[in-house]
């Protein structure tokens, strides 16, 4: 007889978010198991980014719940969620462009630290500051950015800026990392490298949920994929199941994909 199933680390139940008369997320439910790489995909306007915004505390849901480790976190502020271990990256750059690469990652460390944010920035908590520097440099080395530690973030290439954004998030010691289109604008070599880094992050004990348009990356990276359409759940399952589902081909790839359905499968 099989044992009990572990509860999900992250879950949405009947999530609904409206903007005036527009229902962007419509009674949407999903669950993410601990230790997984979980993809959230769908055509443009499906509600993916709004869902991420609700999960990560930028919007409160109009109805439904967001649960983290079984605890209702609906509408909590992003900073409070980060302190709990739920950390998000952003599609657009939110780096401090004028600051060095190392200082950007230090700020990520402050999210995970117990010491006062202001005292650490001002350098009055020297012991904690030194420990933060060691951890920040370790995080940069993980992403291959250590040689760029003293460069202003504004000097980095697009691919390196995306990696720095992930380094800042990882420095906050997340338990769940929410990645908003991590492969956008990357060439194939950069995408492969980023995929390998996401796997290493997961193997280090961090659950990953990502929104992404690069279908090849999603299919080759994720353990489970949730597909949204018109704000609601369309299909959920393993990549092979999702790839071959006719409703996904119809909704996600559109009419132009009908003739390629056999190839897509």
What gap, in angstroms, lies between the N and C termini?
35 Å
Please state the second-level CATH architecture of the largest domain: 3-Layer(aba) Sandwich
User: Biggest sheet, open or closed, and with what strands and sense?
Assistant: 6 strands, mixed
Q: Segments where pLDDT lies below 50 for 5+ residues?
A: 255-265
Rg value:
19 Å
Short description:
By secondary structure, the chain is of the alpha/beta class. Helix content is 39%, strand content 22%. It has two domains: 1-85 and 174-265, P-loop containing nucleotide triphosphate hydrolases (Rossmann fold); 99-173, no CATH class.
Describe the structure.
The chain has 265 residues and is α/β, with parallel strands linked by helices. The protein folds into 2 domains: 1-85 and 174-265, Rossmann fold, CATH 3.40.50.300; 99-173, no CATH class. 39% of the residues lie in helices and 22% in strands. The protein has 11 helices and 10 strands. A 6-stranded mixed β-sheet has the order 6-7-8-3-9-10, sandwiched between helices. A 4-stranded antiparallel β-sheet has the order 2-1-4-5, covered by helices on one side. The chain is globular, with a radius of gyration of 19 Å. The model is unreliable at 255-265 (pLDDT under 50).
């Amino acid at each position: 007889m099989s044992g009990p199933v572990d509860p999900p680390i992250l879950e949405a139940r009947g999530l609904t978010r409206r903007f005036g008369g527009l229902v962007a997320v419509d009674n949407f439910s999903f669950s993410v198991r601990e230790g997984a790489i979980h993809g959230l995909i769908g055509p443009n306007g499906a509600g993916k980014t709004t869902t991420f915004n609700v999960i990560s505390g930028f919007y409160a849901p109009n109805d439904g719940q967001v649960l983290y480790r079984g605890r209702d976190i609906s509408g909590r502020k992003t900073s409070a969620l980060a302190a709990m271990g739920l950390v998000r990256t952003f599609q657009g750059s939110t780096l401090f462009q004028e600051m060095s690469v190392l200082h950007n990652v230090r700020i990520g460390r402050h999210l995970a630290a117990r010491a006062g944010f202001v005292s650490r920035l001002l350098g009055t908590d020297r012991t904690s500051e030194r420990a933060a520097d060691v951890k920040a440099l370790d995080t940069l080395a993980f992403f291959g950015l250590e040689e760029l530690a003293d460069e202003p973030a504004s000097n980095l290439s697009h691919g390196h800026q995306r990696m720095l954004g992930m380094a800042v998030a990882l420095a906050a010691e997340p338990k769940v990392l929410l990645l908003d289109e991590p492969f956008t604008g990357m060439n194939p070599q950069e995408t492969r490298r980023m995929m390998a880094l996401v796997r290493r992050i997961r193997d280090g004990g961090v659950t990953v949920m990502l929104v992404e348009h690069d279908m090849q990356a999603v299919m080759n990276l994720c353990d489970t994929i949730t597909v949204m359409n018109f704000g609601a759940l369309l299909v959920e399952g393993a990549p092979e199941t999702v790839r071959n589902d006719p409703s996904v081909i119809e909704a996600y790839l559109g009419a132009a994909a009908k003739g390629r359905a056999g190839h897509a499968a």
